[in-house]
Design goal:
Elements: E1 7-10, E2 15-16, E3 19-22, E4 28-34, E5 40-45, E6 50-55, E7 59-64, E8 69-75, E9 87-92
Parallel strand pairs: 1-4, 3-9
Antiparallel strand pairs: 1-2, 4-7, 5-6, 5-8, 8-9
Length: 94
């Protein structure tokens, strides 16, 4: 079932996909996978007040209900670590 969910993969110095489009009006569950070299990552959607913590080699789920608009997602600074390249943009179509 996880393979059917929209997926974001955190790599060592990037996130894939770096751009996503969704339709509005429904709660969407995203599958977040940590394939980076860092022991843990927190992928954060600050405008949606949502984040998920994943350890290296593991995955997590995050549920969001975004309105039409553009939202950034990025590696949230934690334990003195931040990687500015791990970021993307979610566009929710009108």
């Amino acid at each position: 079932m996880l393979e059917k969910l929209p997926t974001i993969v955190m790599k060592p110095h990037s996130v894939e996909p770096s751009k996503m489009e969704l339709r509005p009006g429904e709660t969407v569950v995203l599958h977040i996978i940590n394939e980076s070299e860092n022991n843990c990552h927190i992928l954060d959607f600050p405008e949606l007040d949502a984040s998920v913590h994943t350890e290296r080699g593991r995955s997590g789920l995050i549920a969001i209900t975004p309105e039409p608009g553009t939202y950034e997602y990025a590696c949230k600074p934690h334990h003195g670590y931040v990687n500015e390249n791990i970021r993307g943009v979610l566009t929710v179509l009108p």
